Amino acid sequence: MNLLGSSHNGLRKTRLLTVLDMGSSKVVCVIARLRPLDHTQYLPGRTHHIEILGFGVQRSRGIKSGVVMDMAAAEQSVRLAVDAAEKMAGLIVDSLIVNFSSARLRSVVVHGEYDVSGREVSMRDVRSVLASASRKAFALDRHIVHSIPLNYSLDSEKGISDPIGMTGNLLGVDVHVLTAETVPLRNLEACINRAHISVEAMVATPLASGLAVLVDDEARLGAACIDIGGGTTTFSVFSDNRFVHADAIPVGGNHVTLDIARGFSMPLEDAERLKVMHGSTLPGGVDDRHMISVAPIADERSEMQYPRAVLTRIIQARVEEILEMVRDRLNRSGFGHVIGKRIVLTGGGSQLTGLPETARKILGRNVRVGRPLGVSGLPTLAKGSAFSAVVGLMIYPQTASFEEKIVHTIGQLKTGTGGRFQRVGQWLRESF
Description:
This protein is of the alpha/beta class.
């Protein structure tokens, strides 16, 4: 079964794909070749093998908490990252898939119904019930990032994965709709368009990260993927091989760095280096005796010596705050019971020493650190958790056929003549 609840019956092809990870700390562009696969045993939803052709990474500028704040600076970061990937691959890019990690994401489940009058359910009936759910989704008055059928019902029978060919009176469907505010998305697209590149699809970061790091049993039995990025922390919930919920908070690893810089009155670059080299979320018995050197912002005094325990306390306070916010959001979502004891941490912020242990204590679940799986040719620096989202963007088209079903109907409801949803649907059909 496809990870997101649908199978893709079209002819699979070898295709080139370009993706762009627009993060608050880095901008990453990857050009890849996707070759059809016959079978994958452990990685859900994979239909193609991913081979990296070009890779470019730049420091992110003009982006805060996943939102474009300085158009010119963000455009320059995009140009430099894409240019590096193009040079490595020997190709010119004209379109790409980009992620979106604003804290203003919102997940809802809408229900649609359609009367089939006791006859056999056809594909036309499925489109009609999806259109019924889509009308409710557009009543939310927000931009629809993803619209994913979760399950169907037929009269009193619920939890049906594919109702075609079954007989009943009332066909129903539950659709997970992930929405975002329109203005940040438009600004993100405008930033990329200014670099003379078109956007074929926007993918929510929590979905992309989950696709990259979850293994088959986790996606089937239920798990949450928490991506601790630079400016935002996002989390996604998967159950029964479906993406069922996502949320985001505007706090991430950059806030830990900022706390260190303020606490020690030191430059941000030095604070980041101190966090990476000596940072931990767990106090140790030797921390009070282990001294670290801190360079002040001004030059009028020499380096200061502090116990490592001071640094640990600063980091621990912010990390615990982030995890407690995620825990509370997860409990309020109503999906806390779905994930059981499975939590996967990823993102650049997940690499802090002691973070899994702290997460187990606060979240009360089994925790592992997830890294991108099933990709060949990534540079050594890009094989860690910080690059999960960009790998997930390359997996997304392999699993996105579920949105093809409703993309045409949604496009008609939204614009009458076409639009982003129809463009994405056409692109998916042509490419995969």
